[in-house]
Design a protein that fits this description.
Number of domains: 2
Largest sheet: 6 strands, mixed
CATH class of the largest domain: Alpha Beta
Shape: elongated
Structural class: alpha+beta
């Protein structure tokens, strides 16, 4: 799957001659090829993928919509790109300022002989809207991660360490078809559950809340899910806080739809937590876009003034974190439509007590 035609349409709409893609995620989006140390050049009518001898055979077998060009010591990347630019008569070249280092910018500016212009927005806007095929892949990624989570949870023992659980979960996500984890799993128990991005440690599970944030990459796309379970009987306050977080998540999902400003979706969930008296303990945004990367944009965040487009895939993950005591986060993933959001996460949300 590639998106070259969509990129070419976007270039035409902005009256741009070409764009040079250097970030691995955008190269994959454009060409469908996941190899690292690859770049791509897209004009209004053609495209090229540049790679070296490590990936050339795989690229030639996989890439059908772009010309695959070998780079080596005798024909370095800048020389190859300059040749194409010269042949096509291109004088202004769009670049991804977010993934292009200053050193590389100076190098290309010197060696390509064309004007380099900021064009990150072209790719950001395209990738914010997922096609039905992309959504289908992301749904399957969710299913792989959910199966792995359910199996790993069934093997949980109180003498298991947080790191062991994280390793077992990662293993099972790969076993069931994932190519990699989306990010390092967060597995924090007891008082450490109050740390939203706590790191699993080589310590046995502590009684109380156990928060598990995990995701898998499948066919180049990410899943993202969080569940909080309780090891041992929860207190009345713990049950109350869990219920508030669940209510907040459901309020955010119910409010979300394509065209809404990101801060409005966040506010719908945040209001529930604030009215319950726990506003100071909700320390991050309601959600973020995801796709090829685990964090994309736009977001459902208090400072997000951009609309969330129809077709965006956004996490829904409110939380309450009381330092030194406990924390709760529940995270699903939703696809935004014109009239609402579709939750593509299948795991139950009732508090599980183990």
């Amino acid at each position: 799957m590639d998106h070259l035609f969509s990129i070419q349409k976007a270039l035409a709409a902005r009256e741009m001659e070409a764009i040079f893609l250097t970030g691995p995620s955008n190269v994959f989006y454009a060409t469908g090829f996941p190899g690292f140390d690859c770049t791509a050049l897209v004009t209004g009518s053609e495209a090229w993928l540049f790679t070296d001898g490590r990936y050339i055979e795989a690229a030639e077998n996989a890439v059908k919509s772009a010309r695959v060009v070998l780079t080596d010591r005798q024909h370095p990347l800048a020389q190859r790109v300059k040749e194409v630019l010269s042949d096509c008569g291109i004088r202004r070249l769009g670049v991804e300022e977010r993934s292009l280092s200053y050193a590389d910018y100076l190098n290309y500016k010197e060696k390509l002989g064309v004007e380099l212009v900021s064009s990150q927005v072209v790719m950001d806007e395209l990738r914010a809207v997922k096609t039905p095929e992309e959504v289908e892949i992301m749904v399957e990624a969710q299913r792989i991660a959910e199966k792995a989570f359910t199996e790993t949870l069934s093997h949980l023992r109180m003498d298991m360490t947080e790191s062991e659980f994280a390793a077992e979960l990662t293993y099972r996500m790969i076993l069931h078809g994932g190519s990699d984890k989306s990010f390092d799993p967060i597995v924090v128990s007891g008082e450490k559950s109050s740390m939203p991005h706590g790191v699993p440690e080589n310590r046995v599970m502590r009684k109380g809340f156990l928060t598990i944030d995990f995701g898998v990459k499948y066919k180049g796309y990410c899943s993202d899910t969080t569940r909080t379970v309780c090891l041992g009987e929860p207190t009345a306050e713990m049950r109350k806080v869990y219920g508030i977080v669940r209510e907040a998540q459901e309020a955010g999902i119910a409010a979300a739809k394509g065209g809404m400003i990101g801060s409005e979706v966040d506010a719908a969930a945040r209001r529930v937590i604030e009215e319950a008296g726990y506003g100071q303990y909700f320390t991050h945004s309601f959600g973020h876009s995801l796709g090829i990367d685990i964090h994309e944009g736009p977001n459902a965040a208090p400072t997000e003034k951009r609309p969330l487009p129809v077709g965006a895939v956004v996490s829904a993950e409110p939380g309450i974190y009381i330092p030194g005591r406990f924390g709760v986060r529940i995270e699903d993933v939703m696809v935004l439509g014109e009239n609402g959001a579709r939750d593509i996460t299948n795991l139950p949300k009732d508090l599980l007590v183990l």
